[in-house]
Amino acid sequence: MSRTSASDPVGHALLAFLHGTKQAALTVHSNVAEEEPLPASYFFRTLWEMPELERTALEECRGRVLDAGAGAGCHSLELQSRGFQVKAIDASPGAVQVMGARGVQEAACHDLFALPAGEHYDTILMLMNGLGLVGTLDGLQRYLQYAKQLLAPGGQILATSSDISYLYEDEDGALVINLNGPYYGEVEYFMTYGEEKGAAFEWLFADAGLLQDYAEEAGYEVEFLGEDDQQQYLVRLTLKQQNIGNN
Asked: Which of 22, 30, 126, 231 is the most exposed place for a label (fewest CB within 10 A)?
């Protein structure tokens, strides 16, 4: 899809950067933190500009790769340079246009849950807190089942997520969380680029223990491959043998 007239602040910011507006930046709005800028340049980072967790994830990729929420395609391009066959997907038509212009060989505008039937991948890559694409805990549960249709035998999901409980600490370091309310890692966002406002969307930050519980319940083996000082972690999920092929 090359249609970019609809509200697509992410896509329009990436296109502006691609075409020479190097100061192009999104503004990120959420219900848990102050608004903050997100430079479009961050989506165009090179391998050595990537955080260590992302470089580790790229080293762990194998086989045919699905790059989910691929943005401007920095991970896909790096993997292509290493000889991988990669399909890059993003919900932003503008982002997909940028990826095509940058040389991503297979880029498509897809919702996370709307891939064509019959496609199989050895690695599903979900970086930049990419597990958040599932939206909510219900979405996580649903995606862990859906991914079983996508994973080839022996396939893996490589994803990053974060524990954001620190946002709810009081002055003494105690957590102030409503245990009867929604999970604290379910966050509502919208993006703006200049005067353009995007649609609101949900994003999940899953603490490691909760992610492990949900994944094991769904029939996955869980291996944590690293953590940074921002409480972000990289996890590998692989299907237990008896669950391969189950939907």
From this structure: 22
